[in-house]
What does this fold into?
Amino acid sequence: MASIDPAVASVLDSHPPNDEYDEEELLESLEDDPALSSFREQRMQQLHDEVSRVKHLHNQEHGQYAEIKEEKALMDIVNTGAELCVVHFFKSDFHRCSIMDGHLEQLAPLHFDTRFLRISVDNAPFLVTKLKVQVLPCVIAFKKGVSVDRIIGFEGLGYSEDTFSTKDLERRLLRSGTLVREKLTDAPGPWQKAQLSGSRLRISQADHDDDDWD
It folds into this structure.
């Protein structure tokens, strides 16, 4: 996947990614960049191309956290439908799965290059066996149909045992290469602040143990 100019990426990431991008507004933001002059035409063209690409991705259901009901449909998306996928295997009555859902819901509209999906373990007996899903929540990251990372419970997230943030999860997925670039900053824009409201969730002691559902 081709990289884009940092100035173009900054403009895109400062606006809510959706299929109704105001391209004129984005171009005006780019023109405010004092370093624009030496790369003006290249950056303007790249911004136009990127806006068109984002709109195309949204038409293919990128930018949302979607539940898939059938495991064959999930396999089709992971293997041929999207290059980058993050899949949450969940059980509806497991509170820790709900916590993971909350964080993935925050990331999905930010990282439109990646498909964010969830499937109930009750609807995926073949995949649960094949992928050896035993502890929930279980989040598996895929690149071109190949599993490149697995988060079991809340393993490896955050700086303490009882909390983790959406940014912690983003960092973990960035390391696996299933996210294109960092979107959450220490000083998010207004729309990102609204998106991330309540994104740090505290886990009660009753939820501390992983949910071994098998």
Summary: DSSP finds eight helices and nine strands in the chain.
